[in-house]
Amino acid sequence: MEKGTDFHDDQMIEEILCDKATLLILQEAVAELDREEQKLIENLYYKNLTTREIGKEIGVSHMAVVKRHKKIIDKLKKFF
């Protein structure tokens, strides 16, 4: 709004605020992960590597990466 954006709908403002709040919670949750867990999240979601590529890089099977990913996601869900 400070930059001159007009919002036509209160619902739109509410959605933007909820999205920002969710993003802040997610950032805090990821910061609580250990370095190895953060690296896995970074590789999957920011570098768009596959579980096979990550497994090859760290020397484990892709199923081990899938299991680690699931544990991390479960950990992150607790923050929400």
From TrEMBL:
The keyword Transferase does not apply. Residues 29-78 form the RNA polymerase sigma-70 region domain. InterPro entries: RNA_pol_sigma-70_dom, RNA_pol_sigma70_r4, RNA_pol_sigma_r3/r4-like. SUPFAM superfamilies: Sigma3 and sigma4 domains of RNA polymerase sigma factors. Keywords: DNA-binding, Sigma factor, Transcription, Transcription regulation. It comes from the Bacteria. The keyword Ribonucleoprotein does not apply. Gene3D superfamilies: 1.20.140.160. This is Sigma-70 family RNA polymerase sigma factor. It comes from Gracilibacillus marinus.
